[in-house]
Design brief:
76 residues, mainly alpha
Length: 76
């Protein structure tokens, strides 16, 4: 059980970092480094990418926090 939960925790951590880095910031962030962000805009539209990435950030953050909580409970 700990191994599966640790895997979910590590995977959610990596995905959360990736999604946060892909989001558009004031300076265009990391998404601007890969082709100026045009590929992201072409794929999701101008508003769709922000909405999708925001929702993914929320989901991955919740999974990360819950897995942290349950790992803390199990490891005692």
């Amino acid at each position: 059980m700990v191994v599966v939960l640790s895997f979910i925790h590590a995977l959610s951590c990596i995905l959360l970092i990736g999604v946060v880095l892909m989001q558009k910031s004031k300076g265009d962030g990391l998404s601007g480094a890969f082709g100026g962000g045009g590929a992201l805009t072409a794929s999701f539209g101008t508003r769709g990418a922000a909405t999708l990435l925001s929702k993914l950030t929320t989901v991955f953050a919740i999974v990360f926090m819950l897995s942290s909580f349950f790992l803390a409970l199990i490891s005692k």
